[in-house]
Amino acid sequence: MIRKSPFRAFPAYALLGCAFIALFFCPPAVASFGAPHDTGAYTLGEWSKRGKFRSGGLRLSREAHGKHYFLGTSAIPQAKGTGYYKNTLVTLNSASYGLTRHLAIGAGLDVFSIITTRGADPNWYARMQFGGSVSSLLHLGVQAMYMALPPPRRTEPSATASLPSGFGTLMGLATVGNEAYQFTLGAAYLNDGTQAARGPLLQVAGMMRVAPNLAVVMEHWIFTDPDNSYPMYSAGVRILGDHLALDIGLAYDRERSATITPIGLPFLSGTLNF
Q: Please, what is the Cα angle at 106 between 150 and 64, to 5 degrees?
């Protein structure tokens, strides 16, 4: 049996990921926009340290919103006493809060699933993340999460089979970079309460600030399996503000998104810091 690569399902997202990695290791210099006292060029990392930067009518947002992606998080620790609320397509509501310098908790609820599940439990998740920064450019974390929705399956279950109501993961995360310019790798053990997955759940994500108030974000998830891996891809842009960020992107998986549009499902989400 010939094993198919999970990235063949949608090569455009794989190419985007390769381009992102290439840019990460070759940081572009960004010219100042005509500031009278800032005539040089700045790397994206230097941008993130400049605070309120006004130049030619453009102002650099103080907040890079670099601790989270579309669904998952980076390993950059969330500051104690800070948090954010995120709404995606009205139905998915989530929040995260830093309890200590190294410990953060989060939860989310799909409001639409309350109506559509017809008496069954709605879709929700809860997570706890512990981690810290080894240096200014290397951040490590461990995340435990439970998701109340059926995991992807290799085969259709029988009519009499009792389906798991959710699954849990224990993930290790490593992020290289800072809040404005970063790349994250994650690997998780997955168990649905009856059996463990045959391969790890992988996360490949990153964010790159390309303008004072604009960043490019990618986030890919792969449920690995020796016979049939199940990939999910997403990419888009993030419009940055001091407290509010707006995400616009596309999400693709070979079973659900492809039936809506050839390139996947468009999505819109907003994040508010508190």
A: 115
What's the average model confidence in pLDDT over 108-136? Answer: 89
CA distance 200 to 63: 33
State whether residue 43 is helix, strand or coil: strand
Q: Hey, what amino acid is at 48?
A: S
d(CA 218, CA 36): 35
Distance between CA atoms of residues 224 and 4, nearest Å: 12
Cα–Cα–Cα angle for 66, 67, 70, rounded to 5 degrees: 85
Q: Which positions ≥6 away from 260 have C-beta within 8 Å? A: none
Quick: pLDDT tens for 30-68: 333 333 333 333 444 444 444 444 444 456 777 789 999
DSSP H or E segment with residue 114: helix 111-116
pLDDT tens, 209-222?
999 899 999 999 99
Instruction: Report the pLDDT value the prediction gives residue 230, as an integer from 0 to 100.
Output: 84
Which has more pLDDT, 4 or 192? Answer: 192
The helix or strand, by DSSP H or E, that contains position 147, with its residue range, turns out to be strand 138-147
| C-alpha–C-alpha distance, residues 117 and 112, integer Å | 9
Distance CA 35, CA 45 (A): 18
CATH 2.60.40.10 for domain 6-150+165-273: no
Residues 110 and 126 sit within 8 Å (Cβ to Cβ): no
User: Can you give the pTM of this predicted structure?
Assistant: 0.77
Residue with tokens 């759940």: 201
Instruction: Provide the greatest CA pair distance for the chain.
Output: 73
d(CA 256, CA 262): 11
Measured from the Cβ of residue 31, the count of other Cβ atoms closer than 10 Å reads 12
